[in-house]
Every structure is written in C-alpha cells, then in structure tokens.
Amino acid sequence: MSKLFVATILVLLLLMIIALIILPNVLLLWMLKNIEILHIQLTSVGAYFKFSIGLLLLAIPTFIIDILLEILFVFLIRYRRMRNTVETIMGFFLVFFYLQLLDYYISDITLSHAGLITLTTLYSLLFEVIGSDRLEEMIKEFRIKRKERKRERRKAERQI
What CA–CA distance (Å, rounded) separates 106 from 154? Predict the structure, then answer.
C-alpha cells in the first residue's frame, strides 16, 4: 500500500512540475493571441497545449547544443564577450527555426512573421535568463539581504 502511495505522490509531483512549465506558455500564447498586430491564430484549445509541450521539448536539444557550442567556442573564440554574443545570436536562430517547425507541424496554429519574431524574442530572452549566471547571483544576493534583515529585526526585538 505504501508503494502505491509513493507512486501516486511522484506522479502528482511530476504533473505539477509539467503544469508549472506548460501553464505560463499557455498564458503567454493566449495574451499574444489577443494582440491583433501579431496575427497569431490558434483554432483549438489543444493547440495551446501542443505548442507548450513542443516548447518543453525544445529545452532538451537547446541545452545539449548549448553545451557543445560552449566547448567549441572555448577553443575558437578567445574573448568571452564575443563568445556570448555569438551564442545569443545562434540561440535566437535555433528558437526561430524551432518555432517555425512547430508552426508547420501543428495545424491548429498559424503564426505571422510578426508573431514568430515576437515569440522568438521572448523565448530567446527567457532561455538567456535561465542559462545565465546573473540570475543565480541575484538569487544569492536576495537571500543574503533577507538573512541580514532577519538578523537586524532580531537585534531590534532583543533590544526592546
């Protein structure tokens, strides 16, 4: 009985993780669909989920390609700033072509050029933020500041 309980908890946890990844994509698509200038058309509710799952699957080749490019660029390009610029441009085009593939293979989705460029820019920026060390540094700084505030609050409470 306990194995069934643990398996159920693991399945629910997996579903929650997937939902946390898919739901922001669905929300973003829904918001961008309502902007007339972008001409993004989704003809069914299933298209939202197909597109979101497709984007979830993009993460796998993106990170593998990113690791391979990082290894290659360490040997080819000496300057880090130039290396980061080349990686960002290549990442943009990878996302662009992948979104074109999703547009082509999912029949319920129609993306205009403006919609495709907008989605590519948003997802490229998102992947850049996720992959950057700056995000981790910001989180560490936030935690340190929070601990300092707690210490100061405790000192103030003790003095009263």
Answer: 57
Residue 142 lies inside a defined structural domain of this protein: no
- Distance of alpha carbon 122 from alpha carbon 77, whole angstroms: 27
Asked whether 103 and 110 are in contact (CB, 8 A), the reply is: yes
Q: What is the pLDDT of residues 30-86, one digit of tens each?
A: 999 999 898 999 888 888 888 988 888 887 777 787 778 777 777 777 776 777 788
Domain that holds residue 35: 2-132
pLDDT score of 159 more than 80: yes
> Of 84, 93, 83, 85, which is closest to residue 62 (Cα–Cα)?
93
Does 152 map to a domain?
no
Q: Determine contact, residues 123/52, Cβ cutoff 8 Å.
A: no
